[in-house]
């Protein structure tokens, strides 16, 4: 698991390789990632936008921006959490994802919450010994 806290908002990510949805002989590798967002702060926040930077093992970068997550813009009161699962395909057997969520307070203040960088590893990645 990967965890990071920004302004009392804790993001935890657990990526999992999906062997049954991947086709390594066709350079198609798929992961799901489960995200938990916890509001440890004193005020209510709403997740407005997401940003992802996905880099495969050849250094190719894909950027994804959009409203909310999985079609929702959850509101989190102090002490509440929200969880969702999504996924991403790659053309290589490994990669890395990092991102951020834009949160908004009831007063209209918007701020970025970092999503920790997490690795996308499959059993098909050649192991290199140093």
From TrEMBL:
Domain ApaG: 3-127
Signal peptide bounds: none
The species this protein was found in: Dongia soli
Superkingdom of the source species: Bacteria
Gene transcribed to yield this protein: apaG
PANTHER family reported for this sequence: F-BOX ONLY PROTEIN 3, POLYMERASE DELTA-INTERACTING PROTEIN 2
UniProt-listed Gene3D superfamilies: ApaG domain (2.60.40.1470)
Entry-linked InterPro entries: ApaG_domain, ApaG_sf, Uncharacterised_ApaG
Protein name, as recorded: Protein ApaG
Transmembrane regions listed in the UniProt entry: none
């Amino acid at each position: 698991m990967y965890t990071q806290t920004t302004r009392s908002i804790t993001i935890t990510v657990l990526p999992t390789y999906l062997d049954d949805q991947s086709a390594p002989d066709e350079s198609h590798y798929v992961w799901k990632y489960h995200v938990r967002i916890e509001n440890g702060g004193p005020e209510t926040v709403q997740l407005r936008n997401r940003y992802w930077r996905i880099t495969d093992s050849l250094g190719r970068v894909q950027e994804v921006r959009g409203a909310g997550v999985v079609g929702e813009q959850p509101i989190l009161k102090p002490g509440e959490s929200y969880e969702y699962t999504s996924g991403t395909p790659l053309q290589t057997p490994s990669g890395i994802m990092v991102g951020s969520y834009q949160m908004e307070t009831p007063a209209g203040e918007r701020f970025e919450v970092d999503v920790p960088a997490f690795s996308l590893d499959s059993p098909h990645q050649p192991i290199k010994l140093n």
